[in-house]
Amino acid sequence: MDDPNDRGGGTTPSKENTSTPLSLIAEAFEELARTIKSKDFQDLRLGTFSEACSLVSVLFGCLGIAFKFAEMEYVAKVQDLVQASKTFGTLRNIIDYDVENDSVRKPGSSTRNLRRVRQGLDLIRALFEQFISSDECSLREAASSAYAEVCAPFHTWAIRTAVFAGMYALPSKQQLILKLNETDQSVEREMRRYIDASIPVIEYIDKLYISKNITLDW
């Protein structure tokens, strides 16, 4: 009798297709977006938001040394927000607290950490947009463009130089697709899901800062 586990699949592929890193990320951010768009929405729960952001960490790890700076900062800041969620209920709560204590831009403040996490989410959004924009666009080109758009304006010359130099060590598009356990077709679908879901989340975070007269140029 044939062992279904020896067929290179059986029912496993369909299970994997519903639990890839990208699909889990897309699902989490779609839930955040639905919450924001709901009629009785008031604010995002910090714990729920932090959990969704934690899932994104794997993407930075797949990009290698060029995005090591982003991975280290992003992961640390998300963990700080996870800890903050034990004290503060919502995103607005942490900003209100730091505004009252004049600690909005203070290193280690939750408002500053949120700003950096938001930047990480936007970096992935821009990378995905570039990634699926053209079959001719390499991952290095997509990543370079995304970094230039989202992060470079806030980084020193030394950091920018190091990041762009590291872009040459990025995997190929196909290697990244394999790392993410996707196919050419599924990767575009899941990336589009994240792009569409992350935009309202990013815009909401920006609106919170603006509502407190906090500029976005940092």
From TrEMBL:
Xref: Gene3D superfamilies:
Glycolipid transfer protein
* GO MF term set: ceramide 1-phosphate binding; ceramide 1-phosphate transfer activity
Give one Pfam hit by family name: GLTP
Q: Indicate whether DNA repair appears among the record's keywords.
A: no
Where is the stretch described as Disordered?
1-20
UniProt keywords (A-Z) are:
Transport
Q: Which InterPro entries match?
A: GLTP_sf (IPR036497), Glycolipid_transfer_prot_dom (IPR014830)
Question: What are the record's GO terms for cellular component?
Answer: cytosol; membrane
Question: TM spans, by residue?
Answer: none
* Similarity annotation: Belongs to the GLTP family.
What is the name listed in the Swiss-Prot or TrEMBL entry for this protein? Glycolipid transfer protein domain-containing protein
